Amino acid sequence: MKQYKLWRFEVLSGASIESDKSGQIPQKAKYRKHFVNLETAEVSSITDLDSRKFKRNKHIINFTNAYKTLFKNQDVSILTFAVNESKYNSVSKFLNMLEKKLSRKQVDKLGYVWVRDVGDIKFDRHFHVLIATSRITAKVFQELFSKKKHSHFDVEFIRNPNGLKAYLTRKELYGIKRQRSYGKSKEFKIANRNALNT
């Protein structure tokens, strides 16, 4: 196993973890760490931004891996939401509303990941939220999300989890100081198989 030691810490001049006060400009790297391989003397470097992107991408990959077999077997549904930040100023506010809505139809929320983003054309701030649930029929989906009051978010069934994973892992990081850029549920629960068969 390769062993590395921190060799040099470099502050990147003019860079800041927060992009600006609007949160509409991608975050920039604040520092770079240089490591030396104790066996080969090879030097490698990583910025704090690269590290945060790696962690975000790991959450997204772990989510899709946790549910890919159940999704393929149609044991779970995966929904994707684009949530307008002007209506929901925090992801937890949106998730609390959604959980209440799902529970009224006896739909279990199993796990989720989310990523803060800015629109390419209108530059509107929003969240991408992926949620795995117990199986949702098309009829229940319509009952849950067909009303006009849902105009502050878009929702659809995931058709190809790998496609959305590729899209989200290429994204820049957005968010002002002390504002999370991404997150996930504490665990990725598996659907109750007894419930699936009823």
Outline the structure in words.
The protein folds into two domains: 4-49, no CATH class; 54-191, Replication Protein E1, Chain: A (3-Layer(aba) Sandwich), CATH 3.40.1310.20. It has helices at residues 48-72, 91-104, 138-145, 161-169, 193-196, and strands at 4-11, 31-37, 43-47, 76-84, 109-118, 125-134, 153-157, 182-184. The strands form two sheets. A five-stranded antiparallel beta sheet has the order 7-4-6-5-8, sandwiched between helices. It has a three-stranded antiparallel beta sheet with strand order 1-2-3. It contains five helices and eight strands, in the order βββαβαββαβαβα. The relative contact order is 0.20. The N and C termini lie far apart (49 Å). Helix 1 (48-72) runs antiparallel to helix 4 (161-169). Residues 193-198 have low confidence and may be disordered. A hairpin with a 5-residue loop joins strand 2 and strand 3. With 198 residues, it is an alpha+beta fold. The longest helix is centred in the N-terminal third of the chain and has 25 residues, at 48-72.
Number of strands: 8
Radius of gyration, in Å, reads 20 Å
The biggest sheet, with number of strands, parallel, antiparallel or mixed sense and barrel status, is: 5 strands, antiparallel
Please write the CATH class name of the largest domain. Answer: Alpha Beta
Question: What is the tally of helical segments?
Answer: 5
| Dominant shape | globular
Instruction: Give the % helix.
Output: 25-40%
Strand order of the largest sheet: 7-4-6-5-8
Distance between the termini: 49 Å
Given helix and strand content, the structural type is alpha+beta
| Strand portion | 25-35%
Low-confidence stretches: 193-198
Q: Could you name the CATH topology of the largest domain?
A: Replication Protein E1, Chain: A
**How many domains, as an integer?**
2
* The CATH architecture of the largest domain: 3-Layer(aba) Sandwich
Average pLDDT confidence is: 87
Give the ordered list of helices and strands: EEEHEHEEHEHEH
